[in-house]
Design brief:
216 residues; alpha+beta; Helicase, Ruva Protein, domain 3; Tetrahydropterin Synthase, Chain A; GTP Cyclohydrolase I, Chain A, domain 1; two-stranded antiparallel sheet; 9 helices; 16% strand; flat
Length: 216
């Protein structure tokens, strides 16, 4: 049975395992999706699912400065133990994420943070556009849901395509890292600053807390 890119992407999205691991598992399972998932779990490539209930209370705060100080990022990345916080892959992940945030400028961590007012405002814009295009009323809401998915993928960090591998989202990157490291890895919060721009209240709170902890 031929293994398609869509099959690999589907398995990758569910397990967070690497692309080559997914491809190999599907080939070994002769295209059977459930068997491929089981194979990945047995081999440890999808360990993250087992750690979903764990508490990630350790970790590290990462910082990044870009463009001679024009853009700055602070990021809190959590792990289950302080030992893992010093892991080379964990540190590399934190650094990569700060650079991603600097480049992509996400407005929110997840879609749950987007206010109901902002969501409805966006939907109304799409609704007016679709009506102007003459789309049937019964189709408009379905089309809007598809457009909202793209909207979230542009403004929400966890749903953005990772700049170093656009085939995976930041959320999938974290899931994959959890499986490879063997601990639950959580991106708790971040702040992005750019000269001449304001910052969100959540970012102000984060910075104030960091300054207090540093005794500033």
């Amino acid at each position: 049975m031929a293994i398609t890119a869509q099959d690999i992407a589907k398995l990758r999205a569910q397990t967070g395992a690497g692309m080559m691991d997914c491809k190999a598992a599907l080939e070994e399972a002769q295209g059977n999706f459930d068997t491929a998932v089981d194979l990945l779990r047995k081999k440890g490539a999808a360990k993250a699912a087992k750690r979903a209930g764990k508490i990630a209370s350790e970790g590290k705060v990462f910082t990044y400065n870009h463009g001679e100080g024009r853009i700055g990022v602070i990021l809190e990345l959590n792990s289950e133990t302080d030992f893992v916080a010093g892991n080379e892959k964990f540190v590399s992940l934190g650094n990569d994420l700060t650079m991603h945030i600097a480049a992509m400028g996400p407005k929110y961590l997840s879609r749950e943070e987007v206010s109901a007012e902002d969501v409805e405002r966006e939907k109304n814009v799409y609704r007016d556009q679709l009506k102007a295009e003459g789309k049937p009323e019964e189709m408009i809401e379905k089309i809007i849901e598809g457009k909202m998915g793209k909207f979230y993928s542009e403004i929400c960090l966890l749903e953005q395509s990772f700049i170093k591998d656009e085939d995976k989202t930041v959320e999938q990157l974290l899931t994959e890292a959890s499986g490879e490291i063997g601990e639950k890895i959580t991106l708790r919060r971040y702040a992005r600053f750019e000269l001449g721009e304001g910052i969100e209240k959540k970012e102000c709170d984060f910075v104030a807390e960091v300054q207090e902890q540093m005794g500033e």
